């Protein structure tokens, strides 16, 4: 490779993260940092890396968008038959990562994932733009296709079938990840980053600790 990747580095100097400044609940702390990212004008502040594992133990990851936080669960929506949906049906444990380089921050979460109710999925689906609702029907997500034209032809047929009201496909809906581990990372100079971790104990209490970088 002609690029010298080893020389690419950035020293993080914006701010620190101290245990005494953190909320006792990681979801409250996450909401605060998410609000900071939105107010700072960060690109795609709700984008998060979703890492799953299939039945053979093969990990895979992709970016999805956070669409809600309810009762301590982070919500996202997708096609149940997609690769991520198949992984979650085989192994309902996953990890999420937010990264906001402009703020020199990231958040890591690990937890159990479960499907949201049909009512919640219906409500969210109804808020999507018309084209996105049609797209949920048209795309057999993660399956091979011969050409983009084939997909566009499906879209046109579905637009004729559903000119206004588009029902939610039964193969499409929401998931919620309920974390048992959450870590907040703040970049610091000389790679001596601040890391605050929350772990849920057997009594349902969050234990907070500071980790070495």
In short:
Helix content is 26%, strand content 33%. It is an alpha+beta fold. Strands 1, 2, 3, 4, 5, 6, 7, 8 and 9 form a nine-stranded antiparallel sheet that branches.
Topology:
Layout: H1 26-39, E1 47-53, E2 59-65, E3 68-70, E4 73-79, H2 83-90, E5 93-100, E6 105-115, H3 118-127, H4 130-138, H5 148-161, E7 172-186, E8 194-200, E9 206-211
Antiparallel strand pairs: 1-2, 1-5, 3-4, 4-7, 5-6, 6-7, 7-8, 8-9
Helix pairs in contact: 4-5
Structure description:
The protein is α+β, with helices and mostly antiparallel strands. The protein has one domain: Pnp Oxidase, Chain A (Roll), CATH 2.30.110. The protein contains five helices and nine strands, in the order αββββαββαααβββ. It has helices at residues 26-39, 83-90, 118-127, 130-138, 148-161, and strands spanning 47-53, 59-65, 68-70, 73-79, 93-100, 105-115, 172-186, 194-200, 206-211. Strands 1, 2, 3, 4, 5, 6, 7, 8 and 9 form a nine-stranded antiparallel sheet that branches. A hairpin with a 2-residue loop joins strand 3 (68-70) and strand 4 (73-79). Helix 4 (130-138) packs across helix 5 (148-161). 23% of the residues are buried. The mean pLDDT is 96.
Contiguous helical run count: 5
Low-confidence parts lasting 5 or more residues at pLDDT below 50? none
CATH topology: Pnp Oxidase, Chain A
Domain count: the total is: 1
Q: What is the overall pLDDT average?
A: 96
Q: Helical content, roughly?
A: 25-40%
CATH architecture: Roll
CATH superfamily: Electron Transport, Fmn-binding Protein, Chain A
| Overall spatial form | globular
Strand count: 9
The helix/strand series, from N terminus to C terminus, equals: HEEEEHEEHHHEEE
End-to-end Cα distance:
30 Å
The level-1 CATH class = Mainly Beta
Structural class by helix and strand composition: alpha+beta
Q: What fraction of the residues are assigned to beta strands by DSSP?
A: 25-35%
Radius of gyration: 20 Å
**Major sheet characteristics:** 9 strands, antiparallel
């Amino acid at each position: 490779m002609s690029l010298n990747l080893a020389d690419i580095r950035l020293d993080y100097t914006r701010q620190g993260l101290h245990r005494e400044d953190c909320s006792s609940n990681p979801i409250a702390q996450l909401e605060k940092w998410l609000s900071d990212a939105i107010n700072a004008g960060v690109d795609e502040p709700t984008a998060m890396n979703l890492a799953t594992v299939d039945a053979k133990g093969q990990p895979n990851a992709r970016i999805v968008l956070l669409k809600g936080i309810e009762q301590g669960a982070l919500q996202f929506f997708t096609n149940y038959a997609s690769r991520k949906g198949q992984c979650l049906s085989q192994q309902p444990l996953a990890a999420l990562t937010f990264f906001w380089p402009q703020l020199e921050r990231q958040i890591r979460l690990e937890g159990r994932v479960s499907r949201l109710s049909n009512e919640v999925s219906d409500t969210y689906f109804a808020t999507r733009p018309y084209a996105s609702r049609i797209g949920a029907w048209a795309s057999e997500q993660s399956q091979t296709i011969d050409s983009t034209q084939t997909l566009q032809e499906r879209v046109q047929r579905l637009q004729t079938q559903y000119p206004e009201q588009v029902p939610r496909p039964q193969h499409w809906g929401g998931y919620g990840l309920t974390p048992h581990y959450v870590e907040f990372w703040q970049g610091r100079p000389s790679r001596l980053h601040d890391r605050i971790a929350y772990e849920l104990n057997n009594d349902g209490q969050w234990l907070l600790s500071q980790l070495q970088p």
